[in-house]
Structure prediction request, 317 residues.
Amino acid sequence: MCRILAYVGPEIPLANLLLEPDNSLVNQALDPEGHPQLQLAGWGFGAWSKHHLQPDRPLLYRRPTPAFHDDNAGGVIPSLRASTVLAHVRAAAYDSHVVLADENCHPFSFEGTPWVIAQNGDVPHWQSLQRELLPHCSDTYLKQMRGTTDTEFLYVLLLSLLEGDGDDDDVQRAIETALRLIAEAMQKLDLAALTKLKLALVAPNRIIGVNVGLGHRGETDPAGDWRELRRSGPGTDDYALSMLLEPLYLLTGCNFEHYETSYDVDACPVEEATALVLASEPLTENGDDWLDLEFGQIVFVERTGSTITRRVRTLDV
Prediction:
């Protein structure tokens, strides 16, 4: 599995998110905790700061090398601060068909949209599915696609399905429509397969987290207890289903900036929270502090002034 990490809150040193914690995103690429797979196929981040010359555009950094082996990270990251961040470490099959290149590293960012995307997911047969999905894709975004990943094509599809100015309702409708189109294409082409969309769409002071997908037969409502299914072990259908059904995780609180070497925050009422982290797994010792974003849910996070608002909805798929 890949790993994602998104942050919104007070401007803090980027190293506090990506380098300093013992279980930082960079360190987990080599020394994972909750999930055993290493992330060796590249990494990247997008960061926004009011002090950037272009504060509404992300500073985008992507390299096709393992994060822990990136000799530039230690020089670049400690010089940066950010109030909104989306970071990703990439896992891929260990075979000759995987293309390791900058353009295949997350996050992806196109001209003409404030949204940047990264995901821990998989859309099987996505190249064949294009026969059905391309009519729904805008040339504005298709011509910006440079890589060979399912995530970048999903990004094209989602952006093409947006009808308004990218408000919460518009994004939710685009996510729901995209999943239905993928499911219909799989059924029509007899390519039904487990499809995992655990993604983050991020813009300045906004995070949208999505946890949705399709079961092994292309069904939109796969069922099961992910913890029990996980017991079957890697390589089984049940294990793959458990990875689909596992939540994403949200941590909200105050004074995140005071904890330079961990992901800890001070507990406070949700309406008083000043920072939020979205991650593929809980990153603090007390996992009970994290809110589960269950399968089939979408969360909308926005920072206004110094406070965070968080709304969780169930997707209609």
